[in-house]
Amino acid sequence: MNFTMPRRALLGAGLATFAAPRLASAQGSLAGRTITLVVPSPAGGGTDFSARLVADSFGRALGATMVVENRPGGNDVVGLQSVLRAPADGTTLLCGYCATMTARPAIGGLGDIVPTRDFQAVGQITDTPQLFVTHPTVPATTLQEFIALAKRRPGEMTYASAGIGSMHHMGTEYLKHRAGIDLLHVPYRGTGETIRDLIAGRIQFYMNSPPPLTPLVRDGKLRALCVSSDVRHPGLPDVPSAAEQGMPNLGLNVWFAVFAPRGVPAPVVRLLSEKLNQVLADQAIRDRAFAAGALVSPSSPEALSDRVVRETESWTRIARMAGISVS
């Protein structure tokens, strides 16, 4: 009996045969090399956590050595510029924070850097609701109580951010708009500095991804009000969702992802994506993220690229509505 392979299957087989040597060649171009994963913010924050979560295993999967390099400054611009100035061969990558890649460009906060033009998506690492916290001396144990307190004290209570255009800034401004409250914005240069003042009671309110905050909540140094999603975070089952607190559809998830500079060959980007997703399938990595309050969420380059475009458009609308700009 004769079987005829469908034309589409023949084409797919041909493409697979063609792609395999290209991926092998890409692997060879990185094997034995040192790959720098740039974190454009100080140590101790969510971007730093995400980069260090995957760096060792990611490097091994590529047959390379991966090092994390913190390059803070200029609301992340210093780190982004360092990646764009490096050779476009896959040996210098960016661990990108959602606000850096979508919110800051929406308000003109990255100068002449345009993430959708200047970077190529490799893949997402985590995608997690934000945790809303206060200092324990704030007389509010729920988001509703905090909003009521802020309405009684307009402009008196403070909230912290890691700079203009960060998710802490844009997200809290959006919350202010939704809740009809007035909080005083106190920008910092990084998460570590922010948390020190929050613990000391100099700041009343803060929102961020759970990893840097969860241990402090467990130790009683901070009080959790809610998570920003419509459902509870599986790793924080005792913390209510924003929807339970009368704030549905906030859409303030924080994600971190790997990006390559423009010009890196497509086979190298595809190889990086495949190896990153391979690392993220490791249960030990997923457990480590979960223990810190982060949720591993791999993606294809195409899905991540689409998300960057979509969220940049969304933040542009929110910034106009809330009157947020870098000026």
Automatic annotation (TrEMBL):
* Species, as recorded: Neoroseomonas eburnea
Q: Can you name this protein?
A: Tripartite tricarboxylate transporter substrate binding protein
Which keywords does the record carry?
A: Signal
CDD domains hit by this protein = PBP2_Bug_TTT
Q: Does the keyword Disulfide bond apply?
A: no
Question: Coiled-coil annotation: which residues?
Answer: none
Task: Give the signal peptide range.
Answer: 1-26
TM segments? none
Q: What is the lineage of its organism?
A: Bacteria, Pseudomonadati, Pseudomonadota, Alphaproteobacteria, Acetobacterales
Q: Which family, according to the similarity comment?
A: Belongs to the UPF0065 (bug) family.
Gene3D superfamilies, A to Z: Bordetella uptake gene, domain 1 (3.40.190.150), Periplasmic binding protein-like II (3.40.190.10)
Q: Which Pfam families match?
A: TctC (PF03401)
